[in-house]
Amino acid sequence: MRLRFCVICGTNKNLQFHHIKPKSRGGDDHQHNILTLCRDHHAMIHQVRPSDWNNVKTLQKEGMERAMKQGKVKGRGPVIDTEKIEELARKGLGATAISRKLGIHRDSVYRLLPNFKQIRLQYHEC
Ligand SMILES: [Zn+2]
To answer: What share of the chain is helix, strand, coil (3-state, %, to 5)?
Structure first.
């Protein structure tokens, strides 16, 4: 399945799509033939014999749970919580700190919270 996170560690960085049945052996681009992995785990899986990780469903289920725990996935794809951003901004966190905490892009903080700088200013005046 094409997912937005690595099925092994749950990261959403450097994702690659691994063909369970290699294209060289007639594998296709169908959802069932694709495993989403980060660059590191893609490299790792090529060092492991297929018989050792053939339970793809279990792998994906575990990866999904891990990704959810990390707040990277809520149901279908990541959802950015504007209220959470505002709450963190009021606590005095900068855009970079907030983006790291929530696993979103720094620009998203400004896009979703246009008055971000004002909120930060209020914090400093308190
Ligand atoms: Zn990974």
So the answer is: 50, 10, 40
Rounded to whole angstroms, how far apart are CA atoms 87 and 93? 9
Ligand 1 centroid–CA 116 distance in Å is: 33
- CA–CA separation, 119 vs 112, rounded Å? 13
- Give the distance (Å) from ligand 1 centre to CA of residue 41: 5
- DSSP class of residue 4? S
pLDDT digits (tens, 9 = 90+) for 73-97: 665 545 677 888 888 888 889 889 9
Strands (DSSP E) found in the chain: 15-19, 34-38
Please count the CA atoms within 13 angstroms of the CA of 16 that sit on its side-chain side: 13
pLDDT (tens digit per residue) in 95-113:
899 889 888 888 888 888 8
The answer to whether the beta carbons of residues 89 and 119 sit under 8 Å apart is: yes
Output the CA 72–ligand 1 centroid distance in Å: 13
Token pair, residue 3, equals 């997912």
Q: What is the DSSP letter of 6?
A: -
